[in-house]
Design goal:
By secondary structure, the chain is α+β, with helices and mostly antiparallel strands. It folds into two domains: about 160 residues, Sandwich (Jelly Rolls); about 220 residues, 4-Layer Sandwich (Nitrilase/N-carbamoyl-D-aminoacid amidohydrolase). The chain contains eight helices and 23 strands. The strands form four sheets. Strands 2-3-11-5-9-8 form a six-stranded antiparallel beta sheet, with no helix packed on it. A six-stranded mixed beta sheet has the order 16-15-14-13-12-23. A six-stranded mixed beta sheet has the order 17-18-19-20-21-22, covered by helices on one side. The chain is elongated and about 75 Å long.
Length: about 425
């Protein structure tokens, strides 16, 4: 069964805000001083039947918009879809808000509201959507379409729907990451073979993702970064591709990439068929790496796999908040972190603040698989061992008092406040 609530009535049936109860929509704001101006606009429309407009009305304190209450059923999954078009809104990420405010049978808040953050531009309009299950005690939901603190802005909402969907089920993957620090090896090729052999011995069985550490081609063999550098694709990605095919698993590893005379500290990702999915060049190089001839990258790419979206960071990146945040903003559900050594508290913070799984493979940093609450669910304590865990990418990690901080952070992160230069 689907429940739809679209703007399907003739414009003449929509009146001033006082009459909006007749069609189910009403103005919402916490207090009169923050109320926006709301109206139905027949001229700006995606559906052809008018849109629900919210104007900041020259009020810096403005926060609110349209609200409509609908019954929901416990245990059922729903998909909210809404389309908006904006004018004069500088920071739509946090100023344009759609959310689901759950209510119990007595009309009191049930659990915490869910903020819709996924967006996709579609011509002049932007589609936003969320798949979600109501809290167990929810009997209804207030669907809310807001504009927040945008005094010169207007947002138009149209083609809004709430539909029942099939439960998504589990999305489980089995991950393995190796704890190994080589010593006394002679070449890049020997390093790679020893890592592959150790992984196969320590992590038998089905795997979906394998992670090797930073600089796997240089550790323990006395070579320089430049000496072990190679093109991507190149010899090491070819060997890791063989492993990926043999194990029917994605494989990620830290190597040194040469492109002409430039050398990067790079993490590569291979798919189950051994093909290069992509690479990430370490953005935050420490002084020591600059002084040894490395160049920094300048992008935070994410990669689509057959189980979800993956991002990669390398070592020193963990000391800074923006790499993990940039990956999470692009939909990364797992961040792979090949790492030499780094702050363990900050690594946990990256998982917690972005609500992602974090997988590390380290030398001076521990090797583990961490959940979005910052809990290590598997740790490889001994050299030559592997941390192995099955993780469910569809599991929601919620806080009883704050709700789902993944969708809250995506909508409440301020992007408009300038960061001062150091003094």
């Amino acid at each position: 069964m689907m429940r739809w609530f679209v703007l399907a009535l003739p414009f003449a049936l929509f009146g001033e805000p006082a009459r909006l109860e007749n069609v189910g929509w009403r103005l919402w704001s916490h207090r009169e001083a923050t109320a926006p101006r709301v109206f139905v606009d027949a001229n700006v429309t995606r559906s052809g039947k008018g849109s629900l407009a919210v104007s900041g009305n020259s009020n810096l304190a403005e926060h609110g918009g349209w609200e409509r209450n609908l019954e929901v059923k416990a245990g059922t999954w729903y998909r909210l879809t809404a389309h908006y078009r904006a004018q004069g809104v500088q920071y739509p990420t946090w100023q344009i808000v759609s959310r689901l405010d759950w209510r119990d049978a007595k009309g009191k808040r049930a659990g915490q509201p869910d903020y819709v953050y996924a967006v996709k531009p579609e011509g002049e309009w932007t589609r936003t959507w969320m798949d979600v299950q109501p809290p167990a005690n929810a009997a209804s939901v207030n669907v809310q379409l807001f504009l927040s603190h945008a005094p010169a802005g207007t947002v138009w909402w149209d083609d809004v729907s709430l539909e029942e969907i099939a439960p998504p089920g589990d999305r489980k993957i089995r991950v393995a990451t190796i704890n190994l620090r080589l010593q006394g090896t002679k070449s890049r090729e020997e390093n790679v073979e020893k890592f592959v052999s150790a992984l196969n011995a320590a992590a038998p069985g089905k795997l979906d993702m394998i992670l090797f550490p930073e600089g796997m081609t240089v550790v323990g063999n006395g070579k320089s970064y430049v000496e072990v550098s190679e093109p991507v694709p190149g010899p090491t990605t070819a060997r890791l591709g063989e492993l990926a095919r043999d194990r029917n698993s994605y494989v990620a590893a830290g190597i040194y990439e040469s492109e002409g005379s430039i050398v990067y500290n790079t993490a590569v990702l291979l798919d189950r068929q051994g093909r290069l999915v992509g690479k990430y060049r370490k953005v935050y190089l420490p002084r020591e790496e600059y002084e040894k001839g490395l160049a920094p990258g300048n992008t935070f790419p994410v990669f689509d796999t057959d189980f979800g979206r993956v991002g990669m960071m390398i070592c020193y990146d963990v000391f800074f908040s923006d790499p993990a945040y940039a990956l999470a903003k692009q939909g990364a559900e797992v961040i792979l972190l090949p790492i030499w050594g780094g702050n363990e508290t900050l690594a946990a913070a990256r998982a917690i603040e972005n609500r992602v799984f974090l997988v590390t493979s380290g030398y001076d940093h521990p090797t583990y698989i961490m959940d979005p609450d910052g809990e290590r669910i598997s740790v490889a304590h001994e050299r030559g061992s592997a941390a192995i865990a099955t993780i469910d990418l569809n599991r929601r990690y919620t806080h009883p008092g704050l709700g789902d901080m993944k969708n809250r952070r995506m909508k409440e992160q301020r992007t408009d406040v300038p960061v001062p230069l150091p003094r």
